[in-house]
Amino acid sequence: MEHFYQLGWTLDPIGGASGEAYKAEQDGRKLFLKRNASPFLAALSAEGIVPKLVWTKRIETGEVVTAQHWKNGRELTREEMCSMRVAALMRKIHTSKPLLTMLKKLGMRPMLPDLLLNKIQSSLSPKVNAHHAVRDAIQYLENEVPAVNESNCTVCHGDVNHNNWLLSDADELYLVDWEGAMIADPAIDLGMLLYTYVNPKNWVQWLEEYDQPLTHDLRKRMKWYTLVQAITMVQWYEDHKRFKDMNDWIIFLNRVLKNDRLI
């Protein structure tokens, strides 16, 4: 990013370990810069899902740098994830034809359940695979693979953790960090969001704002995808030797697996 230093910008690395995101300041102007962002960012900006895209430039290294408006704000709290605003923005994302068209133009194909199952089965370490809760969950996944029609797949974020929701000081709500975007069953987002943040007695109300009835089929699909994502997190934390977090996800996995009331 030497190019921007030479132009008089002050750059502060942000956004975790990737080293590709920066807060840029010059003469009181602030921008969010990112290297090698997906062209999908333009579509997200146009839909108002992320802060507005200001420009895209190719620098001398050949890398593409995008600049978005810098938004002062904060991530949502766990309690705020239950809000109707979150449900409404999730619905906007899942029903957006421009976003879906863009991902298809980028060559993305739907991530169907059998692909997810094969991926997770081939990625587990012997230690994780030997854990009884993981084995029970894998057995459930194999027995209950949902039938999903490609025509019902939408744009999904894939990581709707509260840390990825930005509420600006101007009360604008955004969903950021779209590196894991996919075309898939929207239940992949809904399951993790509801199981993690929303009291089951409020699922019907939350889904009414999302404009989707809580059917038996949706319950089963949400449970299936939530188990997939929970196992993925168990493996991720085991890989990074963060065993307390790994155990927390195993507890969550057990809760989802055994809570038959929410099948």
Automatic annotation (TrEMBL):
Pfam families: APH. Residues 15-222 form the Aminoglycoside phosphotransferase domain. It comes from the Bacteria. Transmembrane segments: none annotated. InterPro entries: Aminoglycoside_PTrfase, CcrZ_PhaseVar_Mediator, Kinase-like_dom_sf. This is Phosphotransferase. It comes from Corticicoccus populi.
